[in-house]
Amino acid sequence: MFFIPNIGSRDWSISLKNYTNIIKKLMSFLARIELNSSQMSDFSVLHSEMSSKGFTNTITGSDGNEYYLPKATYYFSSSSEKSTVLKKCQEAVAKTGKRAEIIVADCNSCTWSGLNIVK
């Protein structure tokens, strides 16, 4: 059990389980998908499917600006496990009818260079 001293009449203690649940809610993921033998129309389908599952192709910087991620890279914020996020990506890829290479990483903090600002 973690304990923060009682301030006023509030009990600020939380269990390890609740602390873990709070942290899980803050998870962010980056997914990179490489469609094999694809055409531009395949990426349009992929982007639409990824968007419908809650993924974006942008990320917000500490400066408050929103930036485009590199092509076929997506940001997702969820309390889900990486395996669940991967499954969502696989479902989106399936709609294209193509095979793909997919990687999903949790990333609650990242830095970048050269990304274009969304206008």
- Provide the CATH topology: Alpha-Beta Plaits
Order of helices and strands: HEHEEEHE
User: What is the tally of beta strands?
Assistant: 5
Q: Tell me the fraction of residues in β-strands, as a range.
A: 15-25%
Query: Which CATH architecture is right?
Result: 2-Layer Sandwich
Q: Termini separation (Å)?
A: 46 Å
The largest sheet, given as strand count, sense and whether it forms a barrel, is: 3 strands, antiparallel
- The rough form would be described as globular
Tally of contiguous helical segments: 3
Poorly predicted runs: 1-7
What is the count of structural domains?
A: 1
Spatial order of the strands in the main sheet? 4-1-5
Task: State mean pLDDT (0 to 100 scale).
Answer: 85
Can you identify the CATH class?
Alpha Beta
